[in-house]
Amino acid sequence: MRDRRGEVAVLGATGQQGSAVVRALSAAGAPVRALVRRPEAAADLVGLPGVRAVHADTDDAASLREAFTGVRALFVMTVFAARGPAGEVAQGRAVVDAAAAAQVPQLVYSSVGGAERRSGVPHFESKWTVEEHLRASGLPAVVVRPVFFMENFLQSMAPVREGDNLVLRAPLRPRTPLQLISAEDVGVISATLLQHPGLVPAGAVEVAGDDLGPEQVAERLGRRHGLVGRFEPTPVEAVDDEDFRAMFGWLARPPAYQGDLLLTRQLHPGVLDFAAFLAAGHRYPSTRTRTEEPT
């Protein structure tokens, strides 16, 4: 049985990034405190060596302080989807304040690539505000800034099959530079930095596994599924959501993401490029048809 002293806590442990952090820590032999609103939702994770589920609610400061007490490191990410950027800032501040009150000795915060560069994208700016609050807290911390997630092309931006074609549509120019990384690799890198924060002496790193244009993304998606991959640009004005409209506008003005591919590979030699990500078994939703829209 593993020694429970020196547990590493992972907030949002059932999410894409959080669960990847848990898996990587467990594989490395670290005892893990998987922090979730409902511990029963973490049944798959607690089956991993050294992992136990603990209740923590970002709306309950007392539960956060209790969950953070005694850990040797803490992984944090914040989300904007449920309550918007203002809600993300409130969540981030509450988590940082609770970590400071619990005297957490090391923290890794997953932010977003470009957060520090005045992007004008609401959910980037909210993460920058959280970063600033984290710095002001005095907590020892490393910030991981992921670029565009590869998973987006299997979820909200999944291509559509039209006959023998697999068509990717997005409000970008065909050769707009777009750096990519998988959420799984962000989790592995974060787990490494939770245990070895000195690997990023600057205190922040923008991580990327590949650098492609949308045409190349479409080509690789098509090849993976034995179809002809085709990219069709759409007008950014057609994006209903103001936040995402701002993001695609920012992406259209390169350089947008500026991930350090060399340092990323040093931190995680097995980081996936997009072709390897697809070859690993990731596929677009085969049930989506031309008449359906991404959510």
Give average pLDDT, whole number: 93
Task: Indicate the percent of residues in helices.
Answer: 25-40%
| Shape field | globular
Overall CATH class: Alpha Beta
Write out the strand line-up for the largest beta sheet, numbering strands in chain order.
3-2-1-4-5-6-11
CATH topology: Rossmann fold
The number of domains is 1
Give the name of the CATH superfamily.
NAD(P)-binding Rossmann-like Domain
Biggest sheet, open or closed, and with what strands and sense?
A: 7 strands, parallel
What is the CA–CA distance across the termini?
43 Å
Number of strands: 13
Q: What is the count of helical runs? A: 10
Which H/E pattern describes the elements? EHEHEHEHEHEEEEEHEEHEHHH
* Rg of Cα set: 19 Å
| Uncertain residue ranges | 286-295
Structural class designation: alpha/beta
CATH architecture name = 3-Layer(aba) Sandwich
> In percent terms, what proportion of residues is strand?
15-25%
Question: Please, could you describe this protein's structure?
Answer:
Pfam families: NmrA. Keywords: NADP. Belongs to the NmrA-type oxidoreductase family. This protein is α/β, with parallel strands linked by helices and 295 residues long. The chain has a single domain, classed as Rossmann fold, CATH 3.40.50.720. 36% of the residues lie in helices and 19% in strands. The chain contains 10 helices and 13 strands. Strands 3-2-1-4-5-6-11 form a 7-stranded parallel β-sheet, with helices on both faces. A 3-stranded mixed β-sheet has the order 7-10-12. Helix 1 packs across helix 6. The protein is globular, with a radius of gyration of 19 Å. The C terminus is likely disordered.
